[in-house]
Write a structure and sequence with these properties.
Elements: H1 2-5, H2 9-16, H3 18-38, H4 57-66, E1 72-74, E2 80-82, H5 88-91, E3 99-100, H6 101-109, H7 111-114, H8 121-133, H9 135-154, E4 161-164, H10 165-181, H11 190-211, H12 215-221, H13 226-250, H14 270-278, H15 287-309, H16 326-339, H17 342-358, E5 360-362, E6 368-370, H18 379-391, H19 401-406, E7 415-420, E8 424-425, E9 431-432, E10 437-440, H20 442-446, H21 473-478, H22 509-526, E11 527-531, E12 548-550, E13 553-555, E14 561-566
Parallel strand pairs: 2-10
Antiparallel strand pairs: 1-2, 3-7, 4-14, 5-6, 7-10, 8-9, 11-14, 12-13
Helix pairs in contact: 8-14, 9-10, 9-22, 10-15, 10-16, 11-13, 11-15, 13-15, 16-18, 16-22, 17-18
InterPro entries: Cyt_P450, Cyt_P450_CS, Cyt_P450_E_grp-IV, Cyt_P450_sf
GO molecular function, one term: monooxygenase activity
Keywords: Heme, Iron, Membrane, Metal-binding, Monooxygenase, Oxidoreductase, Transmembrane, Transmembrane helix
Amino acid sequence: MESLTSGNPIGQAVMSFPGLSIAVAVLAIALFARFNSTRTPKPDLPVVGVPGSKITKKELLEGARKYPDTPFILPMEPPIVVLPIKIQDEVRNLPESVVSFTKEHQRNFFAQYTGIGDHRPEMIQAIRIDLTRHIVSTLPDLQDEVRYAFDKEFGECKDWTPFPLYFKVLRIVALLSGRIFVGRPLSREEEWIQASINYTVDCVKARNAIRDYPVWKRRWVTNSLPEIKKITQYRIRGGQMLEPIMKAQLAKDSVREKIYNAETGDEEGNFIEWLLKYTPEHLRNDPENLALNQMVCKCCVQLADSLVAHRIDYLPQVSFAAVHTSSMATTHAILDLVSRPKYIQILREEIAAVRATDGETIDDEGYVRLKKDSFNKLRKLDSFMKESQRFNPPIYSKFSDIQRTHGSTNVNSASGTRICTSDLALSTGHVLPKGTRICFPSYAVHTDPKTTTYSPEYNPPGYTHPEQFDGLRFYKLRNMPGKEQRHQFATAGPESLVFGWGNHTCPGRFFAANEIKIILVELLMNWDIRLMGDVEQKGGADKRPPNMEVDLVITPNPKAMVELKRRRRS
């Protein structure tokens, strides 16, 4: 003992205070345990790709085809184990105590500091039960809002005018989503729109700022980080903006009583009413909790867009996705339309035929609204959307809790990202240790002719190979006897993994599908659109602005420019 303390004032001080020495020892043990708990296990499995290099869907497809019946590792940071698609059924419904999507995303986004990735059961219930039940009643408001959004974002546009597509669609979707989630006039206030977009950006900045500190130091420095203070301020200000609506809903005498806004005449706060109904009693009067739910929801609307647009470090498998990724699916669909312009006339003719059959509503300003039932009859448009999504599977693991809550419309090349919360024994004979990250190769499923949906045997004559784009692929399938209600954009299943599959299938997918259709119908009916400089409107798949890809994440090109011109009003 003398050799340890002799000439060492720190050692002498520690030994002079037994309590201090115990505290130091406990701290050392805690740090060691924390370090070991954050280390990613490395199961003994084949590795596809070079550690430290860029991992893309190329490596994913290579591994899925080379190892169709066994798990393999993609050497990302941290590594992830890709499971064979044949064992989906034994994994998809496992409880949180075995595999968890929530804990994986909480880990990735430091939920204990940012609040992003936390389980929001009230939001899940409000979307799954109430919003889904009232989807049809939202259609008139969404059609009204899409007209306002296009007019606001594109102006008169009498001649061909260039626009950055990604950012314009982002704002249009934010307006439509806001109309339902908070209602007018708040949904149209620029402060609310900007807060929604910037909250997303600053959440990512906060995550990156925390990541720059070693594990042992984060607890002490996080609260003082300007990035954390900034997202906290968003929630405070958001709560201030939402508080009058919240108080009006809580003061109602009954759930049947409706609150109308004096300025707009709209029913106000319907979604907030649904949300408050499922909010724990002790949080029901907390406007900041309501703001957090709304901001996280809005965060989902623009997260992927902002990550690329602001050149923020990318996060593979980010746990956000809401009605929001509608902006990404819509952007991809429009880029596919202008690069394959033959479909523009096909889809316009379908819209015209449905209008002629069902009739339509014309408002005081001469704008046409489709009947509520008409959207389900736009089978060619639905098919085109689904094919575009299949070829452009953007960001996010679709099993994430927030994503399934808000109706994500987009996925990445891999799906079902979770983390093993206990050792996981698979029917393949492998045991994955606790802490292993797992996913499924959804992109491989959606492009393999061995998959039943994309096999020649299952399809009608004139079958198109799944590696080729066919905007009417699913329309043709639905024309086959017995398949009329299958293969829709919002369909979820073992061969249609866009919205997840199993007990975490996204319940908001029906709302998302209608929102995207409403945007595309407005575009097709009332606007001409072409690729930048494509004067003859010939398009060309090779002219389509390339997607942005980082690891297994795919997003629309934020620099893609298109030109629009207003048509004669329908």
